[in-house]
Amino acid sequence: xxxxxxxxxxxxxxxxxxxxxxxxxxxxxxxxxxxxxxxxxxxxxxxxxxxxxxxxxxxxxxxxxxxxxxxxxxxxxxxxxxxxxxxxxxxxxxxxxxxxxxxxxxxxxxxxxxxxxxxxxxxxxxxxxxxxxxxxxxxxxxxxxxxxxxxxxxxxxxxxxxxxxxxxxxxxxxxxxxxxxxxxxxxxxxxxxxxxxxxxxxxxxxxxxxxxxxxxxxxxxxxxxxxxxxxxxxxxxxxxxxxxxxxxxxxxxxxxxxxxxxxxxxxxxxxxxxxxxxxxxxxxxxxxxxxxxxxxxxxxxxxxxxxxxxxxxxxxxxxxxxxxxxxxxxxxxxxxxxxxxxxxxxxxxxxxxxxxxxxxxxxxxxxxxxxxxxxxxxxxxxxxxxxxxxxxxxxxxxxxxxxxxxxxxxxxxxxxxxxxxxxxxxxxxxxxxxxxxxxxxxxxxxxx
Length: 448
What we know:
Radius of gyration: 39 Å
Largest sheet: 5 strands, antiparallel
Distance between the termini: 80 Å
Number of helices: 14
Number of strands: 14
Oligomer: single chain
């Protein structure tokens, strides 16, 4: 226990009394940081930590040029001078309080600005008192000093704000907007324990639109994949049951059913292969290819590999290579797969006995420092209507579903091409004109 000691200045006794209830570690830290020298009961030197602390108002560090001496008080005047010098002024205390209040106000505003989500603060009347820059991008119409309820007219959000003000309970609300674009935003309302005149509520917003879109795409993908597999499986099951039952000894039925069963099995096999290919490409999307590929060589390889298929369909493959080297940073096998998918589509949906051109082109797009190389596949088929073009790269999207299934399409070929080009930091461009044909182009940056 620390006792009041005679002969110490009154401020020293006050310091000891304030240190008494503190934990031992705190007392040791303060005693170590606050160093002073006493001469006849007068303070000569103050440590930096003590001078910066608010334990004893009025303590200060002597100026560098100020010579401090220790002496015993010799007269009443000296005692009076000492008392006057030690007495804190009301003006200084008021200034310190104002400064502390301003620092506290700027501190919580800085914290709001540093939040990773769009955020604003409200007073007790629902007026916006502060907002960070992320909120401006999410709600451009929001302004400091305006009522949030007038700008975000959502009954659930207004009710949650009132509940938090009355009860102090944090609330979470999902705000669904339909115009100008559909989006879902999660709002979290929390009460702030600040000064009475400061902000009362903190409201943070998270845009969940992209997350919901990805979840919907995943659900649609599972549903479409299940549907694509269920159809040939049901067909196979029906034929097998027929061959095991009424047509067990029917040779003609067996000869008619077996080719159909084989085609359905091939359809499932293609679908599974495409699903696995798409999965592999997506898993490596973050890995930039480190190999090199020569586009003239890739185009020649694909033409040679698909020449028998084109001949069987009465179509002609025309290769137009580019003079000179055409090296790009790429995974050769993936580029071969992408080009094969495009040529396959051109042969499937092009004109009967038509022509498919595979061309390598060099160009320099505006704004690009280096030239680009393009692998283009052009057919002379019926073409595709403009409103279908943006959706062609979606999984399982087909312009004509029945025709695609009859020709062995899985609806995943262009989705695979898109993801391959995303991994290669390239671009897939599609153009088409009804009655004249379509052009699919793969753009790569040429290696220096």
